[in-house]
UniProtKB/TrEMBL annotation:
Organism field: Macrococcus equipercicus
Active site location: C248 (nucleophile), H333, E335
Gene name in the database record: carA
GO biological process: 'de novo' pyrimidine nucleobase biosynthetic process; 'de novo' UMP biosynthetic process; glutamine metabolic process; L-arginine biosynthetic process
Gene3D superfamilies: 3.40.50.880, Carbamoyl-phosphate synthase small subunit, N-terminal domain
Stored SMART domains: CPSase_sm_chain
The protein's enzyme class: ligase
NCBIfam families: CPSaseIIsmall, PRK12838.1
Any Pfam family matching the protein: GATase
Catalytic activity, as annotated: hydrogencarbonate + L-glutamine + 2 ATP + H2O = carbamoyl phosphate + L-glutamate + 2 ADP + phosphate + 2 H(+); L-glutamine + H2O = L-glutamate + NH4(+)
Stored PANTHER family: CARBAMOYL-PHOSPHATE SYNTHASE SMALL CHAIN, MULTIFUNCTIONAL TRYPTOPHAN BIOSYNTHESIS PROTEIN-RELATED
Subunit structure: Composed of two chains; the small (or glutamine) chain promotes the hydrolysis of glutamine to ammonia, which is used by the large (or ammonia) chain to synthesize carbamoyl phosphate. Tetramer of heterodimers (alpha,beta)4.
Residue numbers binding L-glutamine: S47, G221, G223, L249, Q252, N290, G292, Y293
Protein name: Carbamoyl phosphate synthase small chain
Similarity comment: Belongs to the CarA family.
């Protein structure tokens, strides 16, 4: 007999399902992701810190968990909601089931949930606070507690590296500011020969300038960009001195540093098939996304920024560049694993930007 578990929402909705992973009871913001593959990368993406992820694809865990595909070695999501968690995965790289993996990280999951109904609810209402409850008798109290629950706002500090370290390459020298980075950003830079120094989220502009890198990469990360003041100040200090490229949270921080504004979206973009238009070429890129905040397009008008990419589904801002200084960013994920790889060219653009400005910008 499998142990039961309840998923309850702040609006009083109750879903009954079964436990997998940890027995722990948790609360968090519930979001949904529509990707059909890549659950290992998703569950280990630090941008989900504090969140409960609903997977809309109905079978999760079928190719197991392997050694190589983690975006970070210690996942920090709060919980997983799935229709069916596969118990007997099959793949030549498989090393553990979803259940075994989540248990080892003490992260709870619930399966047997009508994830279509749940997702419709999130789409209509917007993201909601939610809780996993094991005992039926505690449901009413859990819903009551959710109504006034306040979640932490220091997620970036929780997941960022505490000390700097190097992932060695033999070409351009890049400082990667770790706001909760996905490992694949390091892999993409190393693949192009870059020597990558990963530094904590609160590294100052002076500390970076002292290293005289060829470029700075601003990573993705969890939470509200407006809470990451250290990052915003650092970006103001390196703008015009070192070329940089921002991804997701890094993109939002770049916008804030240049005087634009961000807002919380109703239910965000989380999936692997979001069409984005590159306004310079007119080409449509299919992209992987995971964000709950976005840059306000009206606020960009009064800045030195230009919108380079927009979302076809809802017209939101997907890319920015500075009109005169070597800096650009995207809201989506060019490093996406398992893909899609359409936006991968952005790393090559970053290499070109660093090469063109090598040695010159620092003295500007
Ligand atoms: N993947 C990310 O970097 C997400 C950025 C930010 N936490 C958001 O939700 O919008």
């Amino acid at each position: 007999m499998r142990k039961q578990r309840f998923l309850v929402l702040e609006d009083g909705t109750i879903f009954k399902g079964y436990r997998f992973g940890s027995d722990k009871e948790i609360t968090g913001e519930i979001v949904f992701n529509t990707a059909m593959t890549g659950y290992q990368e998703t569950l280990s993406d630090p941008s989900y810190t504090g969140q409960i992820i609903t997977f809309t694809y109905p079978l999760i865990g079928n190719y197991g968990i392997n050694r190589d595909d983690f975006e970070t070695l210690t996942p920090t999501l709060k919980g997983m909601v799935v229709r069916e968690a596969c118990e007997l995965p099959s793949n030549f790289r498989n090393m553990a089931s979803l259940d075994e993996t989540l248990t080892s990280y003490d992260i709870p999951g619930i399966d047997g949930i009508d994830t279509r109904q749940l997702t419709r609810k999130i789409r209509e209402h917007g993201v909601l606070k939610a809780a996993f409850v094991n005992d039926e008798d505690n449901i009413a109290a859990a819903i009551e507690a959710l109504k006034t629950a306040i979640f932490p706002t220091d997620e970036v500090a929780q997941v960022s590296t505490k000390t700097a370290y190097v992932s060695t390459g033999n070409d351009l020298r890049v400082v990667l500011i770790d706001f909760g980075k996905k490992e694949n950003i390091v892999r993409e830079l190393n693949l192009r020969g870059c020597d990558v120094t990963v530094m904590p989220y609160n590294t100052t502009a002076e500390e970076i300038l002292r290293l005289r890198p060829d470029g700075v990469m601003l990573s993705n990360g969890p939470g509200n960009p407006q809470d990451v003041e250290a990052g915003i100040n650092m970006i103001k200090g390196i703008l015009g001195h070192i070329p940089f490229f921002g991804i997701c949270l890094g993109h939002q921080l770049f916008a804030l540093a240049c005087g634009a504004e961000t807002f919380k979206m109703k239910f965000g973009h989380r999936g692997a098939n979001h069409p984005v238009k590159n306004l310079a070429t007119g080409r449509i890129e299919i992209t992987s996304q995971n964000h709950g905040y976005a840059v306000d397009p009206a606020s960009v008008r009064n800045t030195a920024l230009e919108i380079t990419h927009t979302a076809l589904n809802d017209g939101t801002v997907e890319g920015l560049r500075h009109v005169s200084l070597p800096a650009f960013s995207v809201q989506y994920h060019p490093e996406a694993s398992p893909g899609p790889h359409d936006p991968n060219y952005l790393f090559d653009d970053f290499i070109t930007l660093m090469t063109e400005n090598k040695g010159s910008v620092l003295n500007a």
